[in-house]
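Before we proceed, please read the two lines closing this message. Tell me what the token row says about the fold.
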Amino acid sequence: MDGTGRKTHKWRRRLLIAAVAVVFAAAAFVLSIPFLLTHVPIPVLELDASPYLKGKAAELVSSKKATADIDIMRGKPDGFRIRASGTLLDWPYSASAHVRFGFIRAEGDLALTLDGTDWKAYADFSVRGKRDWSFTASIPETHVTQDNEVLASILSRAVPPSISNLVFSGTFKLDASGECTPGRPVPAWTARCSLSNVDASLVTGGKPARIDGLKVRFGADGIADHRDIAPLFPRADAVEFAGFTLSNVFASVRATERSYLVTEAGADCCGGELRLYSLFLDPERLSAGATVFADGIDAGQVLSRLACFRGQASGRLHGKMPFFLKGGRELRIKNTYLFSTPGESGKLRIDDPNPILDNLELGGVPEAERGNLAKVLADLDYNVLKIELARGEDGEDATLGVKIEGSATRGNTTVPVNLNIAFHGDVDEIVNLGLKFKRHTGKEKQK
């Protein structure tokens, strides 16, 4: 063997020795990990969550950080037992985990509790590589009320000043999962939350409101940087506001890129049905407009909302009520009309005709005719009843038109009735709906 061959042989032997040494060192390091993990002190970890909290979500908490004080010990019969405590945004928590390691795999389970509350979360995970992992997580059914420590803190920042006396109770549940696989090397996840058996009452704009038996499931799906919000299908046994009671309330809501689309909503009201279609709501501007369609509404319950009507009525009404929500600050009723079912008749018994007679007096109707009309209005049958509300250009002045066609019978005498009456004034003066409300903002407070 010449000199060159001997030198090559020496280099190969040295490289082999070095490789063996590296392998033994790596093995020794791997074997020492359990010792290092359980004996080397771990400093308190801190994560800045502000990049993930944007817009209104950032306003709901005062702290934007999460901290963890970790203690690791050997688990029995295998793996490691990990305990952690710290703060998650505004709330202290305690957590425990059991983690098991394989040659190229780690898996485990986690339990987390917000201290002093009923909020608990559980998760399982498995990691085989940077692009090969999966997890599942859940919050079991948890009873919540306005006194819940977590919700009370959030509601104190989220609820506008115009809402007061908020009282509610219900059940919350969450399920989530995610994975990244070699065949699809991008994160994909799904989350579903549900609220059920929610009863709530509050005062808004000085008027009470209530909801009973609300249930809704909501969530989102994501893959890489793309996210889709799942359709919403809220249901409620009853909703009360402005003196009205809606029952069997439902809606179908879908999220678009910039707004929410209510494809359909409805409820039973005043013995009939209300329906709404294609309402777009921009959560940033909070401005929207749509039309509520009424079918088979009890005439007596509708007329009882008119300040000029004091009596009783039977029959069914149909029609529509357009409305517009402006800037999330004011709800306005636009030109509205309701009419009786063609071919069907109903009864009117007006106990106090003075508001109608006073209006006719202003229109120049003689006193003798007004006296006869008072007798007619005490008991009449109608075949046409039409109510029309038209707003003025300034949005405040309005005209309420009432048209009645029918007949009245006293003894053996039957007389035809053809009555057109117009009332003028503010909507809240002539229609007792109580739907106008204001939402105060910080700028308004400063003023």
Q: What stands out?
A: The chain is about 20% helix and 55% strand. The chain has a mean pLDDT of 80. The helical segments are 3-39, 149-158, 299-303, 354-362, 367-377, 427-430, 442-446.
